[in-house]
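Anyone else keep sequences and structure tokens together like this?

Example one:
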Amino acid sequence: MSNILIGRQQEKTILKKALQSKESEMVTVFGRRRVGKTYLVRTVFEKKIDLEFTGVQDASLQEQIRTFSLK
């Protein structure tokens, strides 16, 4: 079964607008677990992602830093 992005028109528009902007942009995507946030970003930005990192839920500051440094 192929993964297809269904709906999310408003979210896709926001991400595409940030990508096409002549200014530097930072976009934060947040929400409940397992609702397709990462898939949405990867689908819209395709091969344009140069840096990606994810936090660890309920982790200490030291664990967050260690996880970030492994990327």
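And example two:
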Amino acid sequence: MDGDLTVADVQRAVDQWIRRFEEGYFPPLAMVARLAEEVGELAREVNHTYGPKPKKPEEPGGSVAEELGDLLFVLASMANALDINLAEAFVAVMQKFEERDHDRWTPRGDAPGAG
């Protein structure tokens, strides 16, 4: 698997991995708890990497990229379990942002679609 995946590819890969096991998908509330756990782990890594709290010498190494990957996996798992197409959900939310927030921020002259 390479790093040039579509959202559909991500959802398909997660589904293929989870379907290998009898337990299958966790219930939605358990997945929300997993998302919260992963967000906490991401926050910890960001705080260690960019914030004022360096890791203790005995703490294992980690990475912001790894934590973001974990979040993507759990998010795709939840979407799959609820039969949600993340690409379609993303398109809808971008349309919402474009309509609701188009005058909210100061546009950059060099941004794509500016002007």
